[in-house]
Design a protein that fits this description.
alpha/beta; 7 helices; binds shikimate-3-phosphate
Length: 184
Amino acid sequence: MRAVILVGFMGAGKSSVGRTLAEQLGWTFEDLDERIERREGQTIAGIFRSSGEAGFRHAENVALQELLEGLRSGAEKVIALGGGAFVHEPNTALIEAVKIPTVFLDAGVEELWERCKQQSAERGVDRPLLGSPEGFRELYEKRRPHYLRASLRQETGGKAVEEIATELMRVLGLGRRRGRRGEN
Ligand code: S3P
């Protein structure tokens, strides 16, 4: 199995870099938050409203377990997690057990905040835990030591999505394979 899991704080670019990296490698891309929304039949914001953060974390853990169990040998997949997923111990235990490399997409907290605000204004991206700039920074600082437990750290500050994906291919030692036929 060839797979990689992208982790990091809100606004780190896990989904956009993941999609581009998968495209460049000819692998499939999977976003854990999208799987949660499909399974629950609700948006992430809706789950937070109806079940609170605890309900969301439970749904997240179940979806992650399902995703990892569903990986077959020969799978070639880039997986993006939501910002809190790699912080919660039941999830990290599942990830360690499957031995898939993890990459922490890192950037300064001001830039992360700006990216989230921009996505909210331009695309209506609703992040229930966005809060105030102070609360955002506090959560970032609390979580950063957890993200640093990933197998690799990739700096993303001031870089374009394509550039980050290309750097990731290099550090992961993965080559470009376009137009591959058959299942991933
Ligand atoms: C969360 C981040 C979100 C989403 C949920 C909780 C978090 O994903 O999973 O709102 O705890 O940081 P993104 O990191 O893609 O925004």
